[in-house]
UniProtKB/TrEMBL annotation:
CDD domains (alphabetical): EPSP_synthase (cd01556)
Region described as Disordered: 74-93
Compartment(s): Cytoplasm
Gene of this entry: aroA
Catalytic activity: 3-phosphoshikimate + phosphoenolpyruvate = 5-O-(1-carboxyvinyl)-3-phosphoshikimate + phosphate
Low complexity compositional bias, start-end: 76-93
Keywords: Amino-acid biosynthesis, Aromatic amino acid biosynthesis, Cytoplasm, Transferase
Listed InterPro entries: Enolpyruvate_Tfrase_dom, Enolpyruvate_Tfrase_sf, EPSP_synthase, EPSP_synthase_CS, RNA3'P_cycl/enolpyr_Trfase_a/b
One Pfam family, short name: EPSP_synthase
RNA-binding keyword on record: no
Residue span(s) of domain Enolpyruvate transferase: 17-442
Residues that hold phosphoenolpyruvate according to the record: K30, G117, R145, Q193, R370, R411, K436
Protein name per its UniProtKB record: 3-phosphoshikimate 1-carboxyvinyltransferase
Organism of provenance: Streptomyces lydicus
Amino acid sequence: MTESPAHPALWPAPLAPGAVDATVTVPGSKSVTNRGLVLAALSSEPGWLRRPLRSRDTLLMAEALRTLGVGIEETASSSSSGPAGSADAGQQAGGEAWRIIPAGLHGPATVDVGNAGTVMRFLPPVAALADGPVRFDGDPRSYERPLGGVIDALRALGARIDDDNRGALPMTVFGGGALEGGAVEIDASSSSQFVSALLLSAPRFNQGVEVRHVGAALPSMPHIRMTVDMLRSVGAQVDTPEAGGEPNVWRVTPGALLGRDLIVEPDLSNAQPFLAAALVTGGRVTIPDWPAHTTQPGDALREIFTTMGGSCELTEQGLTLTGSGRIHGIDVDLSEVGELTPGIAAVAALADSPSTLRGVAHLRLHETDRLAALTKELNELGGDVTETADGLHIRPRPLHGGIFHTYEDHRLATAAAVIGLAVEGVEVENVATTTKTLPDFPALWAEMLDPSAAPARRV
Ligand SMILES: O=C(O)C1=C[C@@H](OP(=O)(O)O)[C@@H](O)[C@H](O)C1
Ligand SMILES: C=C(OP(=O)(O)O)C(=O)O
């Protein structure tokens, strides 16, 4: 990483030398990798994860499962098949793989969740199945992120939990070797991950689970669909509201899970800054292996960035976004795809008309308060952004250089890089925070801007 000599923690975001024209191979999906790890750990036979994301959030998940007794071996993968259960059975699956060997889940153990929502929410139900106490701790921000819904639901389903911080981390789950399960009500309006967490472990509960969401609207529905799809792909029986069931009710039947061979799709939300680069520079970026069908919320970028002035084409080469040289503002409800908000806000700040981003009040409790952080940082560069009750109003203004603070939020850092393409002198504080979900963002960014300098890279 190139660092600013005056301030080692600052990364000078490169100004685009012209219209970008690049193919960017994006590492695997965080959300798919961490679900794949949990499901494989709970299966009754070994399984494979091919092309897993290896970033802070997924390494924390793997390490936590190892601590509980699960075997996770790194191997070079040479398989070219994608058997049933694979995210994309047609892809070649070279590169790294993890072999996951389920085993009895044991405490005492200590789990470091870092600031990974998936780890802090998906693992407490797993810990309730262990045969001893499991202590959960993490970054200071993890203490502030909502967890009470998961804690209360697990107690209602039979778990014993000592939450010194009352409804948040740190806490200890006293696993009893099994969990009764059954019907439970939960308010998951602050995070869809509460629902996903209960569903993922439910095949191993004695009675399975019936989760009924009560409260304001659920965010991030595609992520719940991802949970359901992945459960079904390992043999679980799941009833959903979509399949003619009751609204806001999910049921999982108890039963053994199969060990499968899963190829992890590229992380479409992490494709966002690269696609945004095509839009912002009037260039062209191709993301190989973009799935034809997916539950990832990042797939919505095709429509959103088309509305904002690009055009998208999905071919055998992948998804190609071509910028027109014009960027339009957008009025959009992002409640289903909240994690795309920082990147959309960055593009909107460079548009030719105002934008309104709605439906994302829950982003105040993400890695940082994303609405406050985006407002402050874009305004410090000369922008005109105001926070609303559930989103942002962005009125584009000529921006100038300056320090863009990132608040240990990977998506703030990648959003800043997008601004830096068009605005000279943007310096990104702690760009290394991108390793939460992207192993080497500055190198990928540099390769996009100068493909001739790219080393042969395989993820
Ligand atoms: O289940 C998942 O993998 C995720 C669900 C969403 O969480 P929220 O529903 O808390 O927004 C999303 O923002 C997060 O990045 C990943
Ligand atoms: C909200 C996010 O992450 P987490 O899984 O920590 O909730 C995100 O990646 O944008």
